[in-house]
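Q: Joint fold for the lines below.
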Amino acid sequence: MASAQKTNVQRPLSPHLQIYKPQITSFMSIMHRATGCALGVGTLLFAWWLVAAASGPAAYAQVHGFMGSILGRLILLGFTFALFFHLCNGIRHLFWDAGRGFELKTVTVTGVAVLISASVLTVASWCLAYSMRGM
Amino acid sequence: MDSGFRTPLGKVRGLGSAKEGVSHWWMQRVTAVALVPLVLLFVSFLIMLANEPYGTVTAFMGKPFVAAVSLLLIVALFWHLKLGLQVVIEDYVHHEWTKIVSLLAMTFAIIIIGLSCALAVLFMAIAGG
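A: Joint structure:
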């Protein structure tokens, strides 16, 4: 790759992303990487929560206050969806690694299934968390 | 095994492309499989703790089973993250030195964050017990 840059030969390039019509296959693939990166940034929140809990009530109150704010809740909602998307689509990837589910129809069906299950798991988690409030 | 596709150099070395070559790919899968139950368990802990006061949170996080799940999650998660971000950097950063510096910075950052998380869990496990 480095040597190709140095020689600067004008070779034909494969068509770029914007040439293609959006498809669920490419969309899910891009989203898997995007959610993975987003979750990587999200580990900072996870670390903040853990370290604050270990540090004392004042530090924990700060994190809890932020997570409870509108912005905090929006970030957490995005975090939850990204987590379940990456989890469900990751399982889809593991089936591919095992050599299963490569038929075009199956790929589309499992792609839609991942989108639905990630959404359902996100909503279910938030409903559960809110229902625990009164306890 | 048919060696018709092997390069002359590969035949001379007698090793082929196996050994450590697949360890990145394989460990990404191993950590992925481990993360499925660990993430589901930890998310259920967080749902339970979301509205609890500080004392309850630290006491719960300090329980041996909870601390064990948390530590296993931290190891698998940051390992998986390191392998994933490595691929992303290798895919998009083409300048050799920028790539090496990015990979080093990413690895160090993950070790610092991961270690902080692990120490926080250990602290609560020891203080709570």
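Q: Anything notable?
A: The CA atoms of residues 20 and 26 of chain A lie 9 Å apart. The two ends of chain A are 59 Å apart (CA to CA).
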